[in-house]
Amino acid sequence: MRITPMDIRQQQFTVKMFRGFDTQEVDTFLEDLAADYEALLKENSLLKEQLQALEERTRGLEEREKVLQETLVTTQRLVEEMKDQARREAVVIIREAEVQADRIIEASRTAEGNQNPEAVLLHVRVQPKARANAVRGWRGEALRVSVTAAPEDGKATRAVIELLADTLALPPSAITLVRGAASRDKWFRLPAGTDLPA
């Protein structure tokens, strides 16, 4: 059974006639004890309330931490997705710019060819990444050539120009790509009177 401060204050003791307790001292002691006990009970109740409030606050903080972690993970994922999207868009933009640049170059070279109608227009079918640089002969109206260079960054086109310059005994600057910068089928403008290989 739990003792309350009221129980302490109302506690009665049997008083013997001889050698008994001084009732005033006992009452004073019990009153002091009851006051201290009552203060302890109030403090205990207050501490329980504070503990409950702290537990609720801790739960709220844990929930906030969880939400923040989820938000951080989501943000990181979105950033990565945005980076990937930006990379893909950059690749597309670069490709479109390269195609547009090829069209502009081809248009200017075509216009240049129209101004010099005596120039020879040579259709060349290119096999890049071959074992050797060589002129393979004619197939229809196209001269077949193979070059060791890869078809990237204009390397194969430059190799074809050097091969044609060696074969036709022309300076490379006299050979102009008219069309097909990014294609295996290329058209080159040669100076008028150039003897083509048999």
* Mean pLDDT metric: 85
Number of strands: 5
Structural domains: how many: 2
Shape: rod-shaped
In terms of DSSP E residues, the strand content is 5-15%
Helix content: 55-70%
Number of helices: 3
Low-confidence spans: pLDDT under 50, at least 5 residues?
Answer: none
Q: Determine the structural class based on helices, strands and strand pairing.
A: alpha+beta
First-residue to last-residue Cα separation: 122 Å
How can the largest sheet be summarized? Answer: 5 strands, mixed
Strand order of the largest sheet: 2-3-1-5-4
Spell the H/E element sequence: HHEEEHEE
* Radius of gyration from the alpha-carbon trace, in angstroms: 49 Å
For this entry, give a set of tags.
198 residues; alpha+beta; Conserved Hypothetical Protein Mth637, Chain: A; 3 helices; 57% helix; 15% strand; rod-shaped
Short structural summary:
This protein has 198 residues and is of the alpha+beta class.
Overview of this structure, please?
The chain contains three helices and five strands, in the order ααβββαββ. The N and C termini lie far apart (122 Å). It is an alpha+beta fold and 198 residues long. It has two domains: 21-115; 119-190, Conserved Hypothetical Protein Mth637, Chain: A. It has helices at 5-10, 23-115, 155-168; strands spanning 120-127, 134-139, 142-146, 176-179, 185-190.
